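Sample entry (235 residues):
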Amino acid sequence: MSEHPSKQLPSIPADASPQEILRIGMNVADGPVKLACSFSVEDVVIIDMIAELRLDIGIFALDTGRLHEETYEVADALAERYRIAIEWFFPRQEAVEKLLREKGTFSFRESLENRHECCHIRKVEPLGRALKGLAGWVTGLRREQSVTRTGLAPIEIDEANGGILKINPLLEWTEAQVWEYAEARRIPVNRLHKQGYPSIGCAPCTRPVAPGEHPRAGRWWWENPEHKECGLHRR
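Predicted structure, serialized as tokens:
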């Protein structure tokens, strides 16, 4: 059951810009909104748009305990450039300790069930705390990223997270459009992107992709494409 009153979603023009979607989303949310930032090129582009539009959107990040060094570097660079405070959320220490003691450090590679368990502890549960009290959240999801993301809308009700608003301003943008914006604005980006990592998650679950491979082929590469979500974007 939704914790928030049902909102009337507006009709978003097919040619609406990400900036327009952000503005519309803020108006519909009518309450506190934050960006869930993984420091991907999509997320840093949205940070720049938020700053340029002077929107009252906070920024939070999930520190799973297994992020790349380069991810922390770009987080610090963004905080310095935009003078922003990034609110970090962490997994429950007891849950991580129990998982490692009982199943080892790489249990997520043994089965889909184990991988979902790890993602739940390190990402999904902290996300629930991060979203508490919010009227909406912003993501860097794009439709072309994955077969699991083709049914998304630019602005939608997130029933899996209490019925708050979910705003996906870059949904219709291509990877080329994202990079064109980032380079034109000289935005700090994760160094791993230039090393063959189009999609970056936890270090043990991310590898570079070969030329011609799907951008998310390097995420949980031992799984089938239809399973490649961590649970943050449940539907």
